[in-house]
Amino acid sequence: ACICEKNKRVTSCRQANGVCWCDSIGSGVSVNCNTLTSKCLLMKAEVTGSKSGRREKPKDAFEDTDGLYDPECENTGVFKAKQCSGNTCWCVNTAGVRRTDKHDADLKCNRLVRTTGIIVEMKHAERNAPLNTESLKKFFRETIANRYMLDGRYITSVQYEKPYITINLNQNSSDKSSGDVDIADVAYYFEKDVKGDSIFHNNILNVSIDNEELRFEKTVVYYIDEIAPEFSMKSLTPGLIAVIVVVIVAIVAGIVVLVSSNK
Question: pTM score, two decimals?
Answer without folding.
Answer: 0.83
